């Protein structure tokens, strides 16, 4: 699995925290759905040139949050995303961020809230339907 996780040497945050936040972002965006196997600790450490201890710390934090689960001898996986699960909460927070951004843009454009709601309803429809 290509992790597509990158560690920035100019980022002041600890490396394990950069990993945690990037894994959360991939889950919240839907790129890593429930059940997706994460790279092994050793593979990810080698891929991004950090110590195994750094990746292990990140995975332990994600496990403690309930975002991932580790099955002994099998690896680490994105936790199930049922309602109320940590993965579901991540998606909910991401949705809230986008809705706040949409509301702000709507205010900047001077759109009434009814038009924003109409556009949201239109966006919910499957593509190609009216």
TrEMBL record:
It comes from the Bacteria. Gene3D superfamilies: Winged helix-like DNA-binding domain superfamily/Winged helix DNA-binding domain (1.10.10.10). Keywords: DNA-binding, Transcription, Transcription regulation. SUPFAM superfamilies: Winged helix' DNA-binding domain. GO terms for molecular function: DNA binding; DNA-binding transcription factor activity. It holds the Pfam family GntR. Residues 13-81 form the HTH gntR-type domain. Coiled coil: none annotated. This is GntR family transcriptional regulator. It comes from Luteimonas viscosa.
């Amino acid at each position: 699995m290509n992790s597509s996780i990158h560690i920035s040497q100019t980022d002041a945050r600890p490396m394990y925290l950069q990993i945690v936040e990037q894994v959360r972002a991939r889950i919240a965006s839907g790129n890593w759905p429930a059940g997706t196997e994460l790279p092994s600790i050793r593979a990810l450490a080698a891929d991004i040139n950090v110590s195994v201890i750094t990746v292990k710390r990140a995975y332990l934090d994600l496990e403690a949050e309930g975002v991932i689960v580790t099955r002994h001898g099998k690896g680490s996986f994105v936790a199930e995303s049922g309602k109320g699960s940590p993965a579901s909460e991540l998606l909910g927070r991401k949705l809230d961020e986008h809705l706040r951004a949409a509301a702000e843009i709507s205010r900047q454009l001077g759109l009434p809230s009814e038009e924003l709601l109409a556009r949201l309803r239109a966006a919910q429809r499957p593509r190609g339907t009216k």
